[in-house]
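Submission checklist for the structure archive. All mandatory fields must be present; incomplete records are returned to the submitter.

[x] Identifier: Imidazoleglycerol-phosphate dehydratase
[x] Organism: Pseudotabrizicola algicola
[x] Residue count: 195
[x] Sequence attached
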Amino acid sequence: MRTAEITRTTAETQITVSINLDGTGKYDVTTGVGFFDHMLDQLARHSLIDITLRATGDLHIDDHHTVEDCGIALGQALAKALGDKRGIRRFGHFALAMDDSQIACALDLSARPFLVWNVDFPTAKIGTFDTELVREFFQALATHGGITLHVDRTHGFNSHHIAEATFKSVARALRMAVEPDPRMAGELPSTKGAL
Ligand SMILES: [Mn+2]
């Protein structure tokens, strides 16, 4: 079973996350940030990666540290659960439509963190949630998960839909990339000898 548990404690946040790459998309997420919980639930549901996450952060300041640090912890858990990456598809992509919004994601579990981000939000807030934190989350996930992550907004005018379509699109691309490829027969999906 490809599972990992990460506990990360700083002066700003305390986070415990456990994931199962071979799950069924079960989620049990509590961060204290309602909209962000809703997004992480989407990530689990549509990647089929089981995610249990508990975060206690300095929300009296704002949501920034909590959202960013959940990205760090989830990225670390992903890298740990992937192990040596033998037999996986490695690459993933998806174009996901949700009402007005369409988000395209292409990613590589390359161990070369890089974020290409072309997702603009028409509003600064979704309820009380700062839309700029969506990028912060994926920057942290890419950096600590060793992901080359490209995300583009093709269409969209509703910030809630744009954010949600982003999480769903990345989730579906991740599902593809972490999946075992039977034709890879346990080999490393690289000619370099390491990933
Ligand atoms: Mn929603």
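[x] Structure attached
Curator remark: The pocket of manganese (II) ion is lined by residues 38, 160, 164 (CB under 6 Å). Helices lie at 34-47, 64-82, 132-145, 159-178.
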